[in-house]
């Protein structure tokens, strides 16, 4: 799988009353893309499904020393991405 382009950006969210920003990059290949997001040291891959909704996948779930990010936080990040893309 070859990557055609990588563009870095930040995903801003308000989580538990606190403004946060998560670094992300877009990787395009073929007719699709994925977004890689660093959530507190854990890499999350967002990829569009057939209905243009994003699903989140932890890239390395067994990464030593990494805490699993809060699923509600990941869902909020997905919601922000979808609001920008749609």
From the structure above, extract its key features.
single chain; 86 residues; alpha+beta; five-stranded antiparallel beta sheet; 1 helix; 17% helix; 50% strand; disordered N terminus
Q: How many discrete domains?
A: 1
Largest sheet, order of strands side by side? 1-2-3-4-5
SSE topology string: EEEEEH
- Any idea what the shape is? globular
How would you describe this structure to a colleague?
By secondary structure, the protein is α+β, with helices and mostly antiparallel strands. It has one domain (5-85). It has 1 helix and 5 strands, in the order βββββα. The protein has one helix at 71-85, and strands spanning 5-15, 18-29, 32-39, 42-48, 54-58. Strands 1-2-3-4-5 form a 5-stranded antiparallel sheet, with helices on one face. The longest helix is centred in the C-terminal third of the chain and has 15 residues, at 71-85. It is globular and about 35 Å long. The chain starts with a strand and ends with a helix.
């Amino acid at each position: 799988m070859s990557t055609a382009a990588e563009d870095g950006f930040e995903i801003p969210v308000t989580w538990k009353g606190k403004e946060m920003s998560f670094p992300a990059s877009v990787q395009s290949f073929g007719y699709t893309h994925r977004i890689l997001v660093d959530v507190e040291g854990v890499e999350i891959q967002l990829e569009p499904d057939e209905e243009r909704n994003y699903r989140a996948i932890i890239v390395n779930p067994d990464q030593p020393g990494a805490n699993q990010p809060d699923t509600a936080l990941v869902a909020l990040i997905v919601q922000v991405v979808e609001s920008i893309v749609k």
